[in-house]
């Protein structure tokens, strides 16, 4: 008991007297909080005169200098954007800081920075490197203790050059595949420490509580010790005295001490347990002279050759995405608020890791620590590298700044050949945790980080090698290409190998910058920067939802929901660290008629206990009546926080069953339909067909022309009208078209209420005839029929099917069954004015659709399952690379009803992607009835 009391008294003593590190910002803290400095720009916008500029900021986004995209740093006239900027700021140092060590810290300046305090230039930085700092992505600082005047005005001057005097810096950073910016774009502040201090700390806190602490100190003498304890909140009042560690130190500037903390909870991305480590220097008399606090997580990171990456003994599967620090209005200057939203979007798509080509803002790593996202931190270098002297400095700065973040699980030495091999050994020398080093794009250190592998490339490498496979860039989200497209194929096949460690999609956001010289329009430098699954302002593209579905930690086996279904679902727990019962699941049975949707039954499902990697079953408490009455079954998995993990939907009725229900509810059978010559008519609706082609020539409703015609035009197949005939069938009137080629017949039926039915039979060769070039268009992906309808009259669309995003053959996951609506838009994915979801394109599993128009509305219903509804033709990006279309050619016509559609390429050509991207191989056996498409068209305005 006496020992406890003494320890508590000691703790209170050093808490009361210890000096803290003090911070005084000279700039703002981020893009949301800036401070005006004086600024002079040498060239470009607003150059040649002193003005005010926000700090931190990229000067281009403040209306200064010139815009440049890295790889194309030379202008058309051969010039280089090499403007420079002069900053001037007056500040006061607190009088109370006299007698302390004062440091001036820059979190990031692009690209060369020469600093002066009261007209004097520091000879070296705090690490002994030359005073002028070269390199834009790492923090640096100077000891300005003897250069400032306390309690008085001081003048800070910073001369910044956009292009570096160090050619290797330009090669590594400025000739890269991204927008170039200039300026003091991250915060600037003063840091005051006592003369005897803890200057820098690096911590290796293992999952079991064992902890190594590397200290860099100033003024340490014999007899000093280190007091250490951890807390969850930062407060120590409720901590037992036994938690305080008292460690004797040597009189050395740099040393490593060992200790252990009991009862800590390990950090992992699914349980991001964070602690505050409190450290105090205590002199020989028991007086604490300096105390610091830093956030840490206890976790053990390992790389096991020919096996994989491990965290706390659990093998990792990286679901990663590449991200740059970027926002349209502020360039590389970001904010905590914006970065929290980015990390939430990453987690929202069920990714668990981020990679960037350079060290990010410190607050982003704080957010990843707190919210639980692994980080692949990379020494800058894009296809070129720093020279060794410069590289050592920047590597030291990167690791010293970021070393303690538990989210960082691996280091990268440059990108795509930008590797300085002489620096590889220094990573472990500088990093107390000795995290593994990867060469992104290359095979190095037992990790194959091959970029943009084709589908079979990954399979071949995993099947024939013994190195860990982790592509640091794969797929590609440029425009609407990639990211979600073929991800399901890639992931399922690669995950079968124990050597697959996951990978990183390229990339999170379209890097469109607001151009101050172009009326604030957003510029993606043509096809170079629209590479994201999110737009510049984080607009979600369709691939975001596909990725969320494929990467969901909760997966559900395929099931058909019918009245006879036993309500059982098989769930897989694809989490790395969470048990299945940590998630929350709800269900809804939904009615979805043409007049809207209604929830018939909803509830919560208690999930069983299943460890990561295990499967378990659940039974939904649904009755036979509810199964009969429902149209959609929806399940939602959530985290305990209430954030969505994923949403799944299943149709509860086939298309013919659904149609039978709405026909009985909405169609009044009165009067009779009739025909004349090549026309069908009833109830004021008249449809005229061509005698030569069998296609619709015109539609007229009570004297109003509806421009729906020129169909059915065959898509992906060939057919020719052989003959046609008309007859009555009860109160209906029929027009029967017979064809040679791929189609057997199309029967048109006009009902008395003026609804037009189409019953098409294709590939019906009961004699087993071959389907070769006589029936198929060479290379066709789409199979079905098209019609003409002018895009100019469309105002919007309501439909029941999967949505709301358009699909490609290899990107259907993530869309949900529901009644959807979207206004007409002409969005080109990743270019111009973005309105998502895009209006035009393929829509999956249509049951019905209503085209809204002031002059020519129509509705269409199907009795055939699995129909793709094509609405107009999306425009190709205007700024795509010459000769490189992003999509395969769409069918002729405007509105199509298709059995099969085309895939979307993803950096690689279609033929190098997985099986979902390839066209269907339709084979009809002898005796088959072929394929049948039954549609109903309603042209009545009401």
TrEMBL record:
Residue stretches making up the Glycoside hydrolase family 2 catalytic domain: 307-428
Top-rank taxon: Bacteria
Signal sequence annotation: 1-18
Catalysed reactions, as listed in the record: Hydrolysis of terminal non-reducing beta-D-galactose residues in beta-D-galactosides
Family: Belongs to the glycosyl hydrolase 2 family.
All residue ranges annotated as the Glycosyl hydrolases family 2 sugar binding domain in the record: 51-194
Cofactor: Ca(2+)
Keyword Calcium: yes
EC number(s) given by UniProt: 3.2.1.23
Domain (Glycoside hydrolase family 2 immunoglobulin-like beta-sandwich): residue spans on this chain: 242-299
Species for this entry: Xylanibacter muris
Subunit structure comment from the entry: Monomer.
Entries under InterPro entries matching the protein: Bact_Beta-galactosidase, Beta-gal/glucu_dom_sf, Gal_mutarotase_sf_dom, Galactose-bd-like_sf, GH, GH-type_carb-bd, Glyco_hydro_2, Glyco_hydro_2_AS
UniProt cross-references to Pfam families, sorted A to Z: Glyco_hydro_2, Glyco_hydro_2_C, Glyco_hydro_2_N
The protein's name in its UniProt record: beta-galactosidase
UniProt keyword annotations, A-Z: Calcium, Glycosidase, Hydrolase, Signal
């Amino acid at each position: 008991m006496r020992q406890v009391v003494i320890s508590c008294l000691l703790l209170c003593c050093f808490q009361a007297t210890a000096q803290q590190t003090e911070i005084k910002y000279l700039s703002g803290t981020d893009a949301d909080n800036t401070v005006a400095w004086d600024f002079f720009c040498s060239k470009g916008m607003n150059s040649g005169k002193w003005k005010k500029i926000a700090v931190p900021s990229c000067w281009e986004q403040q209306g200064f200098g010139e815009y440049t995209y890295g790889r194309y740093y030379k202008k058309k006239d051969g010039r280089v954007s090499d403007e420079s900027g002069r900053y001037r700021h007056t500040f006061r140092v607190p009088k109370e800081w006299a007698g302390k060590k004062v440091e001036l810290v820059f979190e990031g300046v692009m690209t060369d920075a020469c600093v002066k305090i009261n007209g004097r230039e520091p000879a070296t930085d705090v690490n002994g490197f030359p005073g002028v700092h070269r390199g834009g992505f790492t923090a640096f600082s100077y000891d300005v203790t003897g250069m400032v005047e306390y309690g008085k005005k001081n003048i800070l001057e910073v001369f910044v050059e956009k292009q570096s005097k160090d050619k290797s810096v330009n090669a590594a950073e400025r000739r890269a595949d991204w927008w170039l910016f200039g300026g003091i774009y991250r915060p600037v502040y003063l840091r005051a420490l006592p003369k005897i201090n803890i200057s820098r700390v690096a911590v290796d806190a293992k999952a079991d509580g064992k902890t190594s602490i590397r200290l860099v100190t100033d003024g340490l003498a014999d007899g000093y010790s280190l007091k250490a304890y951890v807390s969850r909140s930062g407060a120590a009042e409720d901590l037992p005295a036994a938690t305080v560690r008292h460690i004797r130190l040597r009189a050395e500037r740099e040393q490593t001490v060992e200790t252990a903390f009991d009862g800590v909870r390990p950090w992992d991305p699914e349980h991001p347990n964070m602690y505050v480590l409190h450290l105090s220097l205590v002199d020989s008399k028991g007086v604490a002279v300096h105390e610091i606090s830093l956030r840490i997580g206890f976790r053990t990171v390992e790389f096991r050759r020919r096996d994989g990456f491990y965290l706390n003994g659990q093998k990792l599967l990286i679901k990663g995405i590449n991200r740059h620090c970027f926002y349209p209005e502020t360039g590389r200057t970001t904010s905590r608020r914006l970065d929290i939203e980015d990390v939430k979007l990453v987690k929202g798509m069920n990714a668990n890791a981020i990679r960037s080509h350079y060290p990010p803002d410190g607050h982003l790593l704080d957010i990843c620590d707190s919210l639980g996202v692994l980080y692949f931190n990379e020494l800058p270098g894009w296809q070129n590298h720093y020279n060794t002297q410069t590289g050592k400095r920047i590597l030291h700065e990167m690791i010293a700044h970021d070393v303690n973040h538990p989210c960082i699980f691996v280091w990268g030495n440059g990108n795509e050949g930008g590797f300085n091999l002489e620096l590889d050994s220094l990573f472990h020398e500088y990093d107390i945790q000795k995290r593994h080093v990867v060469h992104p794009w290359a095979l190095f250190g037992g990790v194959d980080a091959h970029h943009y592998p084709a589908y079979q490339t990954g399979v071949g490498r995993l099947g024939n090698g013994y190195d860990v496979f982790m592509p640091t860039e794969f797929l590609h989200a440029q425009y609407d290409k990639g990211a979600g497209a073929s991800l399901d194929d890639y992931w399922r096949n690669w995950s079968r190998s124990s050597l697959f460690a996951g990978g990183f999609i390229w990339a999170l956001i379209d890097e469109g910058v607001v151009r101050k010289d172009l009326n604030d329009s957003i510029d993606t430098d043509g096809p170079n920067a629209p590479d994201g699954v999110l737009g510049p302002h984080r607009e979600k593209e369709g691939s975001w939802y596909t990725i969320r579905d494929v990467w969901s930690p909760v997966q559900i086996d395929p099931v058909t929901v019918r009245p006879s279904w036993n309500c059982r679902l098989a769930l897989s727990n694809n989490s790395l660290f969470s048990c299945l019962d940590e998630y929350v699941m709800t269900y809804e049975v939904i009615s979805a008629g043409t007049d809207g949707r209604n929830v018939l039954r909803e509830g919560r499902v208690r999930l069983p206990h299943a460890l990561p990697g295990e499967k378990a079953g659940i039974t939904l408490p649904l009755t036979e009546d509810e199964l009969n009455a429902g149209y959609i079954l929806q399940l939602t998995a959530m985290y305990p926080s209430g954030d969505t993990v994923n949403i799944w939907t299943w149709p509860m009725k086939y298309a013919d069953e659904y149609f039978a229900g709405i026909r009985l509810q909405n169609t009044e059978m009165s009067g009779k339909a009739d025909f004349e010559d090549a026309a069908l008519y009833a109830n004021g609706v008249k449809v005229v067909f061509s005698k030569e082609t069998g296609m619709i020539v015109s539609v007229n409703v009570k004297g109003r022309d509806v421009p729906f015609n020129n169909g059915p035009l065959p898509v992906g197949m060939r057919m020719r009208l052989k003959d046609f005939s008309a007859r009555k069938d009860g109160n209906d009137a029929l027009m029967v078209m017979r064809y040679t080629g791929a189609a057997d017949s199309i029967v048109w039926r006009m009902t008395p209420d003026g609804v037009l039915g189409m019953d098409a039979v294709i590939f019906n060769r009961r004699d087993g005839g071959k389907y070769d070039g006589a029936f198929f268009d060479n290379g066709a992906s789409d199979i079905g029929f098209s019609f003409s309808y002018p895009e100019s009259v469309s105002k919007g669309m309501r439909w029941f099917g999967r949505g709301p995003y358009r699909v490609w053959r290899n990107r259907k996951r993530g869309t949900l069954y529901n009644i959807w609506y979207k206004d007409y838009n002409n969005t080109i994915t990743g270019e111009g004015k973005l309105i998502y979801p895009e209006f035009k394109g393929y829509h999956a599993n249509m049951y019905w659709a209503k085209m809204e128009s002031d002059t020519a509305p129509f509705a269409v219903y199907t009795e055939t399952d699995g129909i793709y509804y094509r609405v107009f033709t999306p425009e190709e990006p205007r700024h795509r690379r010459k000769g490189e279309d992003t999509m395969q050619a769409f069918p002729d016509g405007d509105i199509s009803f298709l059995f099969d559609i085309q895939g979307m390429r993803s950096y690689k050509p279609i033929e190098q992607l997985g099986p979902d991207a390839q066209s269907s191989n339709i084979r009809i056996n002898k005796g088959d009835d072929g394929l049948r498409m039954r549609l109903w068209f309603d042209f009545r305005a009401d």
